[in-house]
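WARN no homologs supplied; continuing
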Amino acid sequence: MRRIYDLFVSGGKDSVVAATVTHRKAKGEGVEARVVYIDELKAFGIPRNLLEHDPLEYVKRFASWLGVDVLVLESDFDYWEGVKRWGYPLIFDKRWCFDFLKKRPLERLVVEERREGLQAIWVTGIRRVESQRRGMIYRSNKSIIKVGGSYVEYYHPILDWTDDQVERFIRDNGIPENPLWRLGFSFECLCMAGMSITKLDRMIEEAPRLVMWLAERDREVQEARRRGPAYVNPLLSKRIPLCEYVKMKMEQKKILDF
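OK structure emitted
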């Protein structure tokens, strides 16, 4: 079987650093490498012209800088139908978005790679310092994980890196900057399962057209649900639907303009 490093890149700092480190390792070993990007936006049905910065465009630019091809994986699942049935994904409960938006495309990738005779090593930017749970799960920078009906080798090259090491590596190696790094949130992970209220407010400020589009979808969801309102994670404690919160914030913004 032919070995290959699949460099999973979301556009975040950790993923591009891990990809760069492993790409150098692959060149030294004479092993092929490519960037793999899971494009979740198709599942949301969002017109890409609503995005202030398209994460896929950055990933393509980064892959070009690295000198490798990009493989784009997509989900054929309708995210909004999922919200109508189960409510919004939450960070510690009902995080069904992972199964449908990430796991299913990965399961198809495993099947395809086996068919092509590839022995793939999946590379991630996971770091222990990001959470106590990750520190307990990832004991080594290599692991074997079952995906679908097959086992896949994972490699986590920056598992023990600090924030300072990541920042220094980006600066010292001239890695292209993603405009989203300055905003502090991603236009890819729009399920908001891991988003704080502070980041949601900043998203409303920085990407009003996109947020208004999401608010309209939320209004449709609320009208279609029979089990009561559904709340995105940052608004769960407030018990306010996204559509109402966005309307309130937009009205406040108009008042402050005077």
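The chain has one domain: 2-183.
OK
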